[in-house]
Design goal:
alpha+beta; five-stranded antiparallel beta sheet; globular; eight-stranded antiparallel beta sheet; 17 helices; 19 strands; homodimer
């Protein structure tokens, strides 16, 4: 009854699809954030739901932790094997199973990445709009309730996941939800698994809602005198129900870096990067209204681009901001935060958080999914400098506390994992937080599913 | 340790706000569907969350059922006291507590009705779009995951409820969610309570998302040769991402009744009733595109009305369809169904279900929230004719089974209550259905919250 005995029990079935080799374990012990590498004891590559069920049943009997792994792009240590055990890699469960054109949905395996799905959909006139930046797996995105730049228009994984197949801790296979667009049919198990970060069950199939590729797309950029003005323009846009597809705040430091990296000449000021989806006439009308709003709040040089190559260049520059920043600060890397507040508090939360940074210490940059009240303040640190790392941690904690005090959440989209767990009781209140722990124990009495993450007593 | 002892324990605190009088009990024993009147043993009118907590704590100790009651408009027997106990009336918890104009949300007590909230919002430029027809309470709408005609554009209560205050079975008060637009912060307790039909906790405060009142609204009607054509036009509209605010299917029988009742002269054929929200230009463009689509699929006489009085008349006619039908069949009343299927199966499901009705027996009418794949086939029965009631039940059950076989749900929006419970295992699979029961027991070990409804072993 141990991790070792679980691995031994699985070896005959999985053969060369189970590995305890050091290099493989190391590869699955890494993470994209600040958590020390913590390799699992073994990695398994299942090919079917039944094989996932076999792993769960076996691990449940032997008391062996299971960590589900999609693309490994998580930022809050969801995938590190803090208590050892077996990492389930979904590399081989990466098929788009069904695309229902008329119903505008698709059924995929957890290892399918969002870009892969969109490549598959290209000819259909449909697309999957959730875009967290990284080419994350749909399974991982469902498990962490991911979102990104298009959430302001198309929602997050919370709104996108219609149905799931899930392997429970004891190996039972259940289905939740359906392909019907709405339902008043009992507890919303789908939404309970979405965002449960691998602690309640292992997602083996996901039905996602798709959207029509818009007839016309245009993008716009606009410089602002200050961040308040940019945020006010966003607020007003949302209040007027202009259905912007993206509306991103990019601060002056990022603009400087982007100019240098992508050979652009934007004024070094806070900017909004905006995208409009709709009919030709609709997109033009949206751009006109938003252009007027931007001027009203101190925006200048509002420019819009409907040519694909101009748009692509603009968003490539935005998406590459992190590389741009890194190029500007060689040897340094970003320590990310993820506050999300009611939009009326966005400017205040962001500006106070920037003021926290002691002058002459860390460079801070801000990218914000402003339409959702979500922003990422990142500190550029030298990872080998313990003082800088400690300062970044301390500043990030202050942001989390400020966010909670403003009625927001410590995680808009990155999740809790091991990084934000210490704020859960404060954010939710102890009773709600303990209730999450009770749900966890009901679903996974032996505590084998992603232990050490998200919930109390895990 | 009984219902009586719980009532006795509460009397000193509640005084004349607790009643065991027969007429009051009868009033709270009724329901708007086909379930026999089943009065509670007492009715309590709390005024604060703390009083709800006191009731819960007391009932939990004494093993006394609690049934939460908003406006009493439920259609699946959610509010009948099948095991006796205490009905909690939210008549006195009916305040709009906060309206956050900039953040476009409002915090309300559970007894606030949707019309009351919209009246309150009139001057703000905002509105609450969820419209199930009846003037339901927001608490009840959250508890049953209500939706209605505007869901195709604005979502259902699933998308509208941002945060809750909930009294648990043992009297603990918890808060779930926040006013942040998105979150990746642990289990989605909010979504778990939404649609839990009073079986997991008692909702005492609801934060709902609001929307901007559109600059322009126009409505349109169009007659079709057949239901398939109308459904195809809807499908195409959705696939082209035309953001229709409502798109309702009304069958020929309903049209005949509406013509007679509302003094209108629509051709006696299936119709779509459509509403567009947007800018002046946007609404005109939407109407033009949808008009073309309708023609393509056999629609004729597409007319659109942007004058408020014409629109109001149209929707009043649609909303009064039930009275119109009743006027056409004196002494009869509707037995409602609530199937929701993937839209590709909508026409087939609807037409097969209509064919089920033996000729010369019940008159069947159809109203459909076609954009969501949801329709209500209603049988006009004489409630005192046991044969007709039995036939209606049998036909409704066939619809539920057909819906499940087509990958849909037995309830698009009315909920499960006691009426649809027998289909839960079939729709969700036994394992998922049992999991709902486990959640119920975790939240409410003594089984006092709305017993006899929704989940197994309740």
């Amino acid at each position: 009854m141990s991790i070792e005995s679980a691995i031994d029990a699985l070896k005959p079935h999985f053969g060369d699809r189970i590995s305890t080799g050091q290099s493989v374990r190391d590869q699955y012990g890494r993470n994209e954030a600040w958590y020390p590498p913590t390799p699992p004891d073994a990695v398994v590559w299942p090919e079917t739901t039944e094989e996932v069920s076999l792993v769960a049943r076996t691990c449940n009997e032997h008391g062996c932790p299971i960590i589900a792994w999609g693309a490994g792009t998580s930022l809050e240590g969801h995938i590190v094997a803090v208590q050892g055990g077996i990492t389930l890699s979904f590399d081989r469960m990466n098929k788009v199973l069904e695309v229902h054109h008329e119903d505008m949905d698709a059924v995929v395996q957890p290892g399918v990445t969002r870009k892969q799905l969109n490549d598959d959909l290209r000819a259909t006139g449909l697309f999957f709009p959730i875009d967290p930046g990284a080419d994350a797996s749909i399974g991982g995105m469902a498990a962490t309730r991911a979102s990104g730049t298009c959430a302001v228009r198309y929602g997050t994984m919370r709104e996108s996941v219609m149905a799931l197949e899930v392997v429970m801790a004891d190996g039972k296979i259940i289905r939740t939800g359906s392909r019907a667009r709405k339902a008043a049919n009992g507890y919303d198990l789908t939404k309970l698994f979405v965002g449960s970060e691998g602690t309640l069950g292992i997602i083996t199939e996901i039905t996602v809602r798709l959207h029509a590729q818009p007839e016309a797309i245009s993008a716009a950029i606009c410089a602002f005198e200050d961040i308040e003005g940019a945020v006010q323009a966003v607020q007003q846009t949302i209040q007027m129900s202009i259905p912007v597809a993206r509306i991103e705040l990019v601060d002056d430091v990022c603009i400087r870096a982007i100019n240098a990296y992508s050979d652009m000449t934007m004024p070094e000021a806070p900017h909004l990067f905006i995208e409009f989806h709709g009919t030709e006439a609709g997109v033009a009308e949206q751009a006109e209204i938003v252009g007027d709003l931007c001027s009203e709040f101190g925006g200048s040089g509002f420019e819009w681009a409907s040519r694909t190559e101009d748009r692509t260049r603009l968003w490539a520059a935005r998406h590459n901001f992190y590389y741009a920043i890194k190029a500007m600060c060689p040897g340094r890397t970003g320590y990310n935060t993820d506050a999300c507040v009611p939009i009326s508090r966005l400017a205040e939360c962001l500006l106070e958080s920037r003021k926290d940074v002691p002058e002459g210490t860390l460079m801070a940059t801000t990218i914000g999914h402003a339409g959702d009240g979500n922003f990422h303040l990142s500190y550029m640190i030298d990872p080998n400098d313990a003082t800088e790392v400690a300062l970044a941690k301390q500043l990030a904690d202050r942001i989390s506390e400020r966010t909670i005090s403003m009625g927001g959440t410590v995680s808009g989209e990155h999740g809790i994992g091991i990084g934000k767990r210490k704020f859960m009781a404060e954010e939710h209140g102890d009773a709600a937080w303990q209730l999450m722990g009770q749900i966890k124990r009901t679903f996974d009495p032996a505590g084998i599913l992603n232990p050490g993450k998200l919930v109390p007593g895990n």
